[in-house]
Amino acid sequence: MERYNLTHVSEFYLMSFSEDPDLQPILFGLFLSMYLVAVLGNLLIILAVTSDSHLHTPMYFFLSNLSLADIGFTSSTVPKLVVDILTHSRVISYAACLTQLSAFLFFGCMDSMLLTVMACDRFVAICHPLHYAVIMNPHSCHLLLLLSVFVSILDSQLQNFTALQVSCFKDVGIASFFCETSKFLDLSCSDTIIKNIVTYMVGVLFGFLPVSGIIFSYYKIVSVLLKIPSSAGRSKAFSTCSSHLSVVCLFYGTGIGTYRGSNPSYSPRKGMVASLMYTVVTPMLNPFIYSLRNKDISSTLKRLHFWKI
Closest by alpha carbon to 160, among 202, 191, 189, 206? Predict the structure, then answer.
């Protein structure tokens, strides 16, 4: 395969879902609709939280920021995909590829960090209810948000720095509909062992630790719930966690599918479908999960609807 020098590689070619011209309008409408539903749904969650004073609590503060991160997460990939289908072009410049990679990693890590913080919030609320107001005060909430932003920036820039170390390419075709770190490093014609080690170490550090925090929080929550004598009391206490737990399973479930899709043994098409579930379907479904399974959010949205009418 021909080798390219970095100085001569100014653009890459992204992979398309289908080369069939008849399918392009369908794909365009499908992806655009999913994107608009995801953005509008998350904007409604933000509007509901900011407009209702009863929702000015730590849990909903983090939820509104999660919705904002979801908008950024899906916006880092889908608009480019929709424009590519519309213009029949799969070209992305080198600078735009690295920018997309950084944005995707930043907002993805923000999602992970905020889900972890929300799990800790539920842990404090259920396991230490008398100290909840003291521990989860506004100052602590803003510090946790700033910590999430800092960790996300660190994660995205470390992986972006690793991508910048690629000095030559064996191909210019990226086997995905957007710039992924693993797909980008696969194009390197130099030894990528060290780069892969760094990427996996960063993934473990910024992926394993948040998951561990969520598992620990729910372990403690379940331990406390089992001590509640009445089933009605257990159900009422766990109902405050059900929406968050559903979103966690959806986010990490599709994330694992994306990770497995990057394996060379998987076909690029299957990997793209897994990435689509992770970057589009998850942010689109999150507002529905919270609006359907959370009475406070659903009642606020109903009031907003009647107010507009």
Answer: 202
Determine the length of the chain: 309
Please give the residue that has the higher pLDDT: either 274 or 34: 34
CA angle, 278 then 291 then 82, to 5°: 35
Tokens read off for 78: 């889908």
CA atoms within 13 A on the CB side of 10: 1
Is residue 109 within 8 Å of 206, Cβ to Cβ?
A: yes
Higher pLDDT, 252 or 194: 252
- What are the pLDDT digits (tens) for 68-98? 999 999 999 999 999 999 988 889 998 899 9
DSSP state of 16: P
Crossing angle between the packed helical segments 58-75 and 24-51, to the nearest 10 degrees: 160
Q: What is the pLDDT of residue 1?
A: 44
Please give the residue that has the higher pLDDT: either 40 or 3. 40
Cα distance between residue 250 and residue 144, in whole Å: 23
Taking the C-alpha atoms of residue 158 and residue 60, their distance in angstroms, rounded to an integer, is 30
Q: Whose CA is closest to 284, among 6, 32, 25?
A: 32
